[in-house]
Amino acid sequence: MKRRKAVDKTRVLIAQTWESQLNLSIFLGTLIVTVFVMPSLGLVQRFGQLSENLGYSFVLIFGVAIAWGQKRLFIFASMLGSIALSIRWAALWIATGDFGMWREIATLLSIALICWILLAQVFRRGIVTSMRVQGAIAVYLLLGLGWAHGYQLLNHLKPDSFQSTAAISSSVREWYYYSFVTLTTVGYGDIVPIKPAARSLAIGEALAGQLYLTVLIARLVSMEVMSWQPDADPKSDE
Q1: How much is the CA Rg of the chain, to the nearest whole Å?
Q2: pLDDT tens digits for 200-211?
Q3: Measured between alpha carbons, how far is 231 from 104 in angstroms, rounded to an integer?
């Protein structure tokens, strides 16, 4: 009886935290469109920084909305998100190197915050649901997105940190490709880190990608197995 009540309480808590599966699905869909669909359709080449800002804005807005059920966290996330959006859009008119650096730093902080919001839900106690799986996928994509902006920032600070068979674009879209190739440990070799900081960043992403999948699978499997276990002896609940 106690176990059943605990499971019901967990379900309610998860539902209240995510608010709705639709919200998380929209966030995941927006993330996929921003990272994969827009670059493949050439929208970034046509509209440049404007299309990147629009994609990032939708990702950030829907990501912050996930914390709606937690008042303090939502307020903090909204404040940080507003600052990050303001800096990013202002960079369209303030085209200086220092401002571009702060744009990437603000972007990284906001992505890290959304990852923390999602991870708190993915690894919390409770049964495995489709929302939990979607959240886990979203975190994995956010890891690649965050490291892409990290490479962009490093390339801005030290332009000779990477060597490529083709000219490295100033847009972050090229770093999306390199980031996910590194995250999945594919490593085609067309972009190579040659400076210590760049190599450390690439190694960190490769390790993070593998460790995240290992921990995630182990956690989800353990929660699923626990949900299959029969209720405890009724006498122990008395």
Answers
A1: 20
A2: 999 999 999 999
A3: 50
pTM, entire model: 0.81
Cα–Cα distance measured from residue 144 to residue 158, given in angstroms and rounded to the nearest whole number: 21
| Residue 107 resides in a domain | yes
In this model, does residue 3 exceed pLDDT 90?
no
CATH number of 13's domain: 1.10.287.70
The answer for residues whose C-beta is within 8 angstroms of residue 215's C-beta and 6 or more apart is none
Q: Is residue 139 part of a domain?
A: yes
Is 233 among the domain residues? no
The strand ranges marked E within 76-233 are 162-164, 191-193
In a domain, 234, yes or no: no
Task: Answer whether residue 20 shows pLDDT above 60.
Answer: no
Taken as a whole, the chain contains a residue count of: 238
pLDDT value for 72:
87
CA–CA dist 232, 201 (Å, integer) = 47
Q: Coil, strand, or helix at residue 160? A: coil
Q: What is the 3-state secondary structure (H, E, C) of 47-71?
A: HCHHHHHHHHHHHHHHHHHHHHHCH
71 burial class (0-12, 13-18, 19+ CB within 10 angstroms)?
Answer: exposed
The token pair at 29 is: 């869909």
Cα angle: 64, vertex 66, 70; to 5 degrees? 95
Q: How far is CA 30 from the centre of its chain?
A: 12
Total number of domains constituting the chain: 1
Q: What does the alpha-carbon distance between residue 45 and residue 37 come to, in Å, rounded to a whole number? A: 13
The domain of 26 spans 2-228
Strand locations in the chain, DSSP E? 162-164, 191-193
**Residues 6 or more apart in contact with residue 3 via CB below 8 angstroms:** 231, 232
